[in-house]
Design a protein that fits this description.
Blueprint lengths: L1 E5 L13 H6 L1 H14 L4 H16 L4 H20 L9 H32 E5 L4 H11 L1
Antiparallel strand pairs: 1-2
Helix pairs in contact: 2-3, 2-4, 3-4, 3-5, 4-5
Length: 146
């Protein structure tokens, strides 16, 4: 008789590594580090945007969708306030909003990619095995059938 048997520890769908609030709050220090890195490149606006987007992507892949949006917004705020403009002044001009769209867009893309990977890992770890197959033998069965 075949029965669905999740592997040890896979009884629930995979969750992000960080909750939304934790991931969102970490966007501020990540954005600050990205702004400091941009200053190392003489305050280059393009590098600043790339660093802000990279900080948002890294955290977005580890948190929830809401956390990814908050992380991206805070990373953008550090970029806009300290790299593009000075003294923490946020602007709402066309270029500022395009930069916000870029940072949020790449963060959401990273979150979507992470969700797909988590779903695939969870789905692959759950297969139907005969009820008497021990977990250590399942990898051999996968390699023979997959």
């Amino acid at each position: 008789m075949l029965a669905p048997r999740p592997t040890t520890g896979d009884t629930a769908p995979a969750q992000p590594l960080m909750s939304g609030p934790v991931g969102g709050v970490l966007g501020l220090p990540a954005g600050a580090i990205a702004a400091i890195a941009a200053w190392a490149f003489a305050g280059d606006h393009t590098m600043g945007l790339a660093f802000a987007a990279a900080a948002a992507v890294i955290l977005a892949a580890m948190t929830t969708t809401v956390g990814a949006v908050v992380t991206a917004s805070l990373s953008w705020a550090c970029y806009d306030g300290f790299v593009l403009h000075r003294f923490g002044t946020l602007e709402g001009g066309r270029g500022d909003l395009i930069a916000l769209g870029i940072v949020v867009g790449v963060a959401l893309a990273a979150r979507a990619a992470a969700a797909v990977v988590q779903h695939v890992r969870t789905t692959e770890s759950r297969r139907d095995y005969p009820a008497n197959v021990p977990p250590e033998a399942r990898s051999r069965i996968r390699s023979m059938t997959g």
